From TrEMBL:
Gene3D superfamilies: NAD(P)-binding Rossmann-like Domain
Record has Nucleotide-binding as a keyword: no
Family from the record: Belongs to the short-chain dehydrogenases/reductases (SDR) family.
Cited SUPFAM superfamilies: NAD(P)-binding Rossmann-fold domains
Natural source organism: Caldimonas aquatica
Name of the protein: SDR family oxidoreductase
Amino acid sequence: MSQDSSKTLPPQQQDVQPGREGEMRPAPKADAEDYVGSGKLKGQVAIITGGDSGIGRSVAICFAKEGANVVISYLNEYEDARHTLRKVEEQGVQCLALAGDIADEGFLQILVNSTLERFGRIDILVNNAAEQHPKEKIEDVTSAQLEQTFRTNFFSMFNLTRMVVPHMKPGSTIINTTSVTAYRGNPQLLDYSATKGAIVAFTRSLSKQLVKRGIRVNAVAPGPVWTPLIPSTFDAQHVETFGSNVPMGRPGQPDEISPSYVFLASKDSSYISGQVLHPNGGDVVNG
């Protein structure tokens, strides 16, 4: 009997978002083990929301390998955050890990103030943290869910950026995590997809506002990626076929996404702003 080509992962599910990387099988490739740095971000300071696991973890480690000191925020995934902190500091740089809810403006101010107190500067902001709650019908998306999704995915991004920009100098960069769902849509993720569409518009508009201040703003729109958000969002049957619908026939790994962030954070992309990169397994979106 031939193996079902739609099966990409062992069925599994976690009960609480945003999920725990240590409970996933197989473990995501998020430690950037094969990534070789060359000092592209030496001496810079980066804030990464959702930096404890998944894409955020891989970005944090890649930035560290490029010489940046890193600040990560996370909700309450303490074990995952300790792992990321250790991996970052193994690269000979410093890492500050702060737990809190990015939907809370008070925590965002703590995040900014703590970064400035520790490092005295902010050069790179990666707005990455998000949540999603699939529903079959629009009638099932309550006002409370809609507001919560926007507060986590978009309002926090807007507010944190507003707090960080005054401390940025020419040459600084902002990188926002959007999603292929902003371009393709997703019938079960109406509110999530809407936030990701808002992020694209925000990225393009902010890039035009900040260009005269020498600050570049870009985004990354991943396709299906094996992160803790997946088993903590979907049931085991959905997880079992996750990513099978893209041309490459599999979900991506965080380590396949993070180099896009390094490119956008470094001088390699010095003539690029207001753009979106699409590491999505070959799904052509032309956006």
